[in-house]
Amino acid sequence: MRSRAVPYRPRTLAPIERVPGLDYDVLDDLLGYALRRAQVAMFLAFAAATRGLDITPPRFAALVVIGANPGISQSVLGRVLGIARSGAMALADWFEARGWVERRRRSDDGRAWGLHLTRRGERLIAAMKERVRRHDRRRAAVLTAAERRELVRLLEKLAG
Amino acid sequence: MRSRAVPYRPRTLAPIERVPGLDYDVLDDLLGYALRRAQVAMFLAFAAATRGLDITPPRFAALVVIGANPGISQSVLGRVLGIARSGAMALADWFEARGWVERRRRSDDGRAWGLHLTRRGERLIAAMKERVRRHDRRRAAVLTAAERRELVRLLEKLAG
DNA sequence: ACGGGATCGTTATAGAACATTACAATGTCG
DNA sequence: CGACATTGTAATGTTCTATAACGATCCCGT
Fold this sequence. Notes:
The structure is a homodimer. By secondary structure, chain A is mainly alpha-helical. Helix content of chain A is 55%, strand content 6%. In chain A, helix 1 (31-49) crosses helix 5 (119-139), helix 2 crosses helix 5 (119-139) and helix 3 packs across helix 4. At the A-B interface, helix 1, helix 2, helix 3, helix 5 and helix 6 of A face helix 1, helix 2, helix 3, helix 5 and helix 6 of B. The first copy, chain A, binds a DNA duplex through residues 4-7, 9, 11-12, 56, 58, 73-75, 83-90, 109-113.
């Protein structure tokens, strides 16, 4: 059995409960674990912001990136999201089926498609961006503005 | 089509590339996105620490919690990990098949099983904890000790 | 003591998100 | 021109997880 190519992405809406009286041992000592718990919390905010839209964080990120970089290829999109080409293609298909994105031939490369938002996709993502940002801010409101800035700085330093 | 019960867990070893010249738009403004990138970075450290052991973060967390709380029930384990009972059971099965964990009847509750590490499981998790902690520290070494403490504090505040 | 409702483990089923592999078409560069 | 890389695509398989249902057991109000 090959050692698998591993999972660690919140696939659930269930928060990670802090069960009173339970010993978390070394977990409380790991940055990775603290990150995961915070990420799940922020994910709940994201889910609230996009409720009923059938949007996931990767889908959201993809739409934003396509909108900000019209004509981007599926390969590059995959690299940005950290997924394989085939996955990026599935995303593009899904968007296209909904009429949010269209593929146009590129003059500079006969192999690649250029991805573009449709008018409808643009309207949608504009509204979504606002809602996601608002919820993100609201959830982060347990932090002061200075704390929030510091947190972002540390996270980016960590992400390298 | 029902709105799905959503994904956002790093399932891949591929880092989220920072493609030069690309516009990330609102993503750079979202705490959720910064968290995700940092989490992927820490996940790489975890994967390095457990290479070849067929261990994932949820599996690791489960073993640690079982070790620190002998006799814990599958339901509570599920709540701690943020997964459904059925998933916690699958985990327990997997551990048991490997001889790392055993189920014992509990005197106080005829329905529940108590989960316990076997001798072998104890040895394994002890070694694993050390390796994971070491890799976590090493990856976090881009931060000063004070920064690391502050980061953990902010993350826990955010996780609520 | 009893009866209704909650909780535990379990099983079965379904679905999403991926990776991997292979292929043809196109690009690049010696 | 020819070797080699890269693009999109299709097919396949794995893993994680949820959901729903079930019997057994517990708990609590009457």
